[in-house]
Design a protein that fits this description.
Aspartate Aminotransferase, domain 1, 2 domains, 4-stranded mixed β-sheet, 15 strands, globular, binds pyridoxal-5'-phosphate
Length: 377
């Protein structure tokens, strides 16, 4: 059998990971400034994380959500403390798309309505409801086309109010920082406006923190830069540092009813062990503060490069826009300078490194980036 060929692949085969580095099968080290799509939060193969998952699998790896699982409660408690959302409750699932799917369901259950407001360039995942609120017609199959989703301009609060006034909107969903759309930070006024309008017009305010959450922006959640509290927050990616897991953080206004949501694998022992270890390391190594400090340094160094058109982002979620197509630059960085970067569109390099990135890694990257730009000129 062959693989269903849907991914454009770089010709690199990794053998192991170590902190902010990955090492290929020939022993070549690469600086990882992409974290495998923003997934690696605490660094590759962190010893505490490896020990937690290893000792858990030695005891028991899985049982269904029909028995007491104290690890789920420990994870929820620690996530409440880390995020400050202590009075929220947690529903555990397996991926980002699934988290958004469940958030949309909760919004519809609560309001009895079906219409959703999303934003231009949004990405929320590939399952039915999540892809329906994703602004990319190429990945929406006819069966997932939703007539009751509106894509409005980011930061245009008037257009949001005009729709909400009609009274038929179940939810407004927005990324804490747009990731795949090119690292676009919604303004603080806009986030505050959405919060206020959703309350006024009885719509559920969902913030998708799947890429921007778990400390990446220099706060635990990116929406915390705007000092607001949403009704639902979705998480995945950095939550498990590579172990597949997701979650919905649910405000106390929602009442849980038996059987309302459910999953076979969500919240399994291994996922919980991974998720708890991630939160322990984020706390003990002060990774949220590190993301802010090193992110600011990285952004200020990038802004000094004349060929860079714009640097956007917060913390270690950074978009670097160039005038020219960056495909060759990324290839050079990867194959010659041994640095992984990400992309958004054709002109934006997306940097989503592990949150334990250090100043010396930034200095190395900036030197190699300048070299690469000069060599391609
Ligand atoms: C903002 C955002 N939401 C949702 C998703 C979907 O997550 P998953 O691929 O785990 O389903 C992603 C993935 O890139 C994302 O960046």
């Amino acid at each position: 059998m062959e693989l269903f060929d849907v991914y454009p692949l770089f010709n690199v085969e990794l053998y192991k990971g170590e902190g902010v580095f990955v090492i290929d099968k020939n022993g070549q080290r690469y600086l990882d400034l992409y974290g495998g799509h923003a997934v690696i939060s605490i660094g590759h193969s962190h010893p505490h994380y490896v020990a937690a998952i290893s000792s858990q699998i030695e005891r028991i790896g899985f049982y269904s959500n029909s028995i007491q699982n104290p690890l789920q409660k420990e994870l929820a408690k620690k996530l409440g403390e880390a995020s400050g959302l202590n009075d929220f409750s947690l529903f555990l699932c397996n991926s980002g798309a699934e988290a958004n799917e469940n958030a949309l369901k909760l919004a519809s259950f609560k309001t009895g309505k079906t219409k959703v407001i999303a934003f231009k360039k949004a990405f929320h995942g590939r399952t039915s409801g999540a892809v329906g609120v994703t602004d990319n017609s190429k990945i929406i199959a006819p069966i997932n086309e939703k007539k009751d989703v509106l894509f409005l301009e980011l930061n245009d609060i008037q257009s949001v109010e005009a729709e909400l006034q009609k009274g038929d909107v179940a939810a407004v969903i927005i990324e804490g920082i747009q990731g795949i759309g090119g690292i676009i930070v919604p303004s603080s006024e806009f986030m505050n406006g959405l919060r206020e309008l959703c309350t006024r017009y009885n719509a559920v305010f969902i913030v998708d923190e799947i890429q921007s959450g778990y400390g990446r922006s220099g706060r635990f959640f990116a929406f915390q830069h705007a000092n607001i509290v949403p009704d639902l927050v979705t998480v995945a990616k950095g939550m498990g540092n590579g172990f597949p897991m997701g979650g919905v953080l649910i405000s106390p206004d929602f009442e849980a009813k038996s059987g309302m949501l459910g999953t076979t694998f969500g919240g399994n022992y291994l996922a919980c062990a991974a998720g708890i270890a991630v939160l322990d390391v984020i706390k003990s190594q002060k990774l949220v503060a590190n993301a802010e400090e090193i992110g600011n340094f990285l952004m200020s160094e990038l802004a000094k490069i004349p060929e860079v058109k714009e640097v956007r982002g917060l913390g270690l979620m950074i978009g670097v826009e160039f005038e020219e197509d960056i495909a060759d630059l990324r290839k050079k960085l990867l194959y010659e300078k041994k640095i992984f970067t990400g992309v958004s569109g054709s002109k934006v390099i997306r940097l989503l490194p592990p949150l334990n990135l250090r100043k010396e890694n930034v200095v190395h990257f900036i030197e190699k980036l300048k070299e690469s730009i000069a060599e391609l000129a």
